[in-house]
Specification:
It is built from 25 helices and 26 strands. By secondary structure, it is an alpha/beta fold. Its main location: cytoplasm. Keywords: ATP-binding, Cytoplasm, DNA damage, DNA excision, DNA repair, DNA-binding, Excision nuclease, Metal-binding, Nucleotide-binding, Repeat, Zinc, Zinc-finger.
């Protein structure tokens, strides 16, 4: 085509967002590009804060009809971007906590399945049912007891009595626990006095009659109480009392009332709905079946079992008047389920709720949805697609990535996995370090990326464990009748493919250790009697999206005190609370101290712009006149942690915690960074650093969930030092992990679940020294090392 301009690359010129050093990169269109580098080197700044942000801004500000005349988002710090296309972010951070959202609804598979049931039922029964009749989200079809959730809350006896070894006086029954003058404790005192029950008796020693009085008595009893309210006022009151369990069960009937739920939630657990047995639907809906299966049975089948049922359906209606419609619906259903099976999530079911999935599972389901998308010409951004995957699962992600490209799309993946990177058309490696000294392009040659298959593994020196934790006859989810031993004061790694049972085992270990008794297993023994468990996962830090690194590390109170004690602050009457970001006073009220403002849109993800009132500085101008060692509080919050040691030298409560953060390779982040801005790997390492920096007098059992996920090999080396330091201090560490080199270097013992998933998994096929497990023909590692 003469005169045509070939647009082969997305060209980014002069990018200087965050720590980027005015870099120039070209990303090939309709190709597969990997961006890699150490933590904090600028990967997210380039892809998310520059390319993706500009794509969003251009889309918003150029909507048809010129709906927005004002500037919606700030322009990214970049000279120019040429040939930019609409970008779609397919990350592992999918903030969908709605339990009604399932794999079926997210992938659209449930729509086709429900339509199929309506079509065949109407044909067979002469009815005119709609597709929504088979939906648990339809108020006319869902179970009346659980409202279509398949679960209900029940009072947990373990939560009510967490420790049977405690005496009544020491709070063995949580419902009666409180200060000596509280209404709860005085109720227990009066009941015990009336019925001659010894307050110093352990719960395990109570007679059946005494348990009936305190826990299960259904008839209310009137007693006279004298107690103090939380405000210190003495009250005399006649109250009607039942057993603690019965009173909680009565309150459970009003669980939809927020105040009631808040008051009893600590005693509740979820279990399968007693009315619908987890089907979520009324019996009138379940009465209709296709090839002897109702819709609940089909939605609860593992995806890899659906082929057999759909084959029966196709054969049964092949000669009917609706065979064409049946075939079309089955094809739409199967193309989605087959894509998910190809991405190694075939062990899941359509009915599995999205909040219950791991980040990797959610991302793979979302990738499957995009493989069925009719649109092309998009830029897909994949955030660490190999994160949390066993090496045997990597090839399926590579195939899916290439399928997206084959459909006429551009794929940009932030990734560290050598095998995945080696399949890319182009690599952009940033570095050479994280933080202010990073932000340079140091490599754009795929061939320079070392492949994992070429690595030579160095195994840790053998250490013989002295003591073991033992879990006998574990029965939970897909683990059936398994006995497990875990060495104490050693490092144990748990491995296996996705869905094989790793997280299930860790859940059993955590619950048994924390409670000191067997949960989901027949027997549990631990000679050290340790009950302190620190589960360090990759979930966001903090209780709210407003949480910052400073508040999570518990150093911000100390910092605010230091500023309030300066001469300028004292003269002007500023207190520590004036420097708080959580309450009105010195903070900017326009952004409530966050430094940015959120733009909520019904049809696109929320966007954030710098606060126009304080220009991102969080505080009123008069507060920013207060300085500690020539730094404002906003300067402190914005500076990399590695630059703060000189400022807080000698302030032990602050310095020691910041040092732990720096030692683990996160010196480039700032104290003011919001929790939602941290990657899962950064959040996990922040948790680990906080745990390391916290003073403790008792031993812990640390459980780490895939700590190397999303880390460059240089970051992993820092992590290794921290984990080995914990072991040297006599701690017990249990790690779910997939990185072979990391496992070889740090683990003393390896438990491997093998290559089967779901109901076919749940079995430990090899255990012992890593070098022996790697060579075991039954293990998931055999043939990979």
């Amino acid at each position: 085509m003469s005169g045509a301009v070939m647009k082969d690359n997305i060209i980014i010129r002069d990018a200087y967002e965050n720590n980027l050093k005015h870099i120039h990169v070209e990303i090939p269109i309709d190709k597969f590009t990997c961006v890699t580098g150490v933590s904090g080197c600028g990967k997210s700044s380039l892809i998310y804060d520059t390319l993706y942000a500009e794509s969003q801004r251009e889309l918003l500000e150029n909507l048809s009809g010129n709906m927005f005349t004002q500037k919606i988002m700030n322009k990214a710090h970049v000279g120019s971007i040429e040939n930019l296309r609409p970008a779609l972010n397919v990350s592992q951070n999918y903030y969908n906590s709605n339990p009604r959202s399932t794999i079926g609804t997210l992938s659209d598979s449930s729509h086709y399945l429900r339509t199929l049931f309506a079509l065949i039922t109407n044909f067979s029964e002469g009815l005119t049912l709609k597709e929504s009749f088979f939906s648990s989200n339809d108020p006319n079809s869902c179970c009346e007891k659980c409202k279509g959730l398949g679960e209900e809350y029940v009072v947990s006896l373990d939560s009510l009595i967490p420790d049977e070894e405690k005496t009544l006086r020491n709070g063995a029954i949580s419902y009666f626990k409180g200060k000596d003058t509280s209404q709860e404790y005085q109720t227990l005192v009066v009941l015990c006095a009336v019925h001659n029950i010894d307050l110093d008796k352990r719960v395990r020693d109570l007679s059946d009659e005494e348990k009936e009085i305190l826990l299960y008595r259904d008839n209310s009893e009137s007693i006279q109480l004298k107690f103090k309210t939380p405000k210190g006022r003495t009250k005399h009151k006649s109250v009607e009392v039942k057993g603690a369990m019965r009173e909680l069960q009565d309150k459970l009937k009003d669980i939809d009332t927020p105040s009631v739920f808040a008051s009893i939630s600590k005693y509740l657990i979820k279990q399968v709905c007693s009315a619908c047995k987890g089907s979520k639907l009324k019996e009138t809906v379940l009465a209709y079946s296709i090839c002897n299966e109702n819709i609940s049975n089909v939605e609860n089948m593992p995806l890899f079992e659906l082929d057999e049922w759909t084959g029966k359906v196709k054969y049964t209606y092949a000669q009917s008047n609706i065979h064409e419609q049946v075939d079309q619906l089955l094809n739409q259903l199967l193309v989605r389920t087959h894509n998910m099976i190809a991405l190694d999530v075939g062990y899941l079911s359509l009915n599995r709720s999205i909040p219950s999935l791991s980040g990797g599972e959610v991302q793979r389901v979302r990738i499957c949805k995009q493989l069925n998308c009719a649109l092309s010409g998009l830029v897909y951004i994949l955030d660490e697609p190999c994160k949390g995957l066993h090496p045997r699962n990597i090839i399926s992600i590579i195939d899916a990535t290439k399928n997206l490209v084959a459909k006429g799309n551009t794929v940009i993946a932030i990734e560290h996995n050598g095998k995945y990177i080696s399949e890319a058309d182009k690599v952009i490696e940033l570095g050479p370090v994280g933080g202010p000294e990073g932000g340079y392009v140091i490599n754009e040659d795929v061939n320079q990326v070392s492949k994992e298959s070429e690595m030579v593994y160095e195994f840790k020196e053998k250490k013989v464990p002295r003591n073991w934790m033992r879990f006998e006859n574990i029965n939970f989810r897909n683990i059936i009748n398994q006995d497990v031993e875990v060495p104490l004061e050693r490092i144990t790694c748990i491995t296996g493919v996705s869905g094989s049972g790793k997280s299930t085992l860790v859940s059993v270990i955590e619950n048994c250790v924390a409670s000191g008794k067997a949960i989901k297993c027949k027997n549990y023994s631990n000679p050290t009697k340790i009950k302190n468990v620190d589960f360090v996962n990759q979930k966001p830090i903090g209780k709210t999206s407003r949480s910052t690194v400073a508040s999570y590390l518990d150093v911000f109170d100390n910092i605010r005190q230091l500023f309030s004690q300066t001469e300028y602050a004292r003269i002007n009457g500023f207190t520590a609370s004036d420097f708080s970001l959580n309450v009105p006073g010195g903070r900017c009220e326009s952004c409530q101290g966050t430094g940015f403002q959120k733009i909520e849109l019904n049809y696109l993800p929320d966007s954030y712009i710098e606060c126009t009132e304080c220009s991102g500085r969080r505080y009123h101008d008069d507060l920013l006149l207060v300085k500690y060692k020539n730094k404002t509080i906003n300067d402190i919050l914005n500076a990399p942690i590695s630059e703060l040691f000189g400022i807080f030298d000698g302030v032990i409560p602050i310095y020691s915690k910041l040092k732990c953060v720096d030692d683990i390779g996160l010196g480039y982040i700032s104290l003011g960074q919001m929790s939602m801005q941290l990657s899962g790997g950064e959040a996990q390492r922040i948790k680990l650093a906080k745990s390391l920096g916290a003073p403790t007098k008792s031993r812990k059992i640390y459980i780490l969930d895939e700590p190397t996920s999303g880390l460059h090999f240089q970051d992993i080396e820092l992590l290794e030092k921290v984990v080995l330091k914990l072991e040297a201090q006599g701690e017990t560490i249990i790690i779910i992990e997939h990185n072979m080199d990391f496992i070889a270097k740090i683990s003393d013992y390896l438990l491997d679940f093998g290559i089967e998933s779901g109901d076919l998994g749940g079995k430990i096929v090899a255990n012992g020294l890593p070098e022996n497990v790697f060579k075991n023909p039954q293990s998931s590692w055999y043939g990979l090392v």
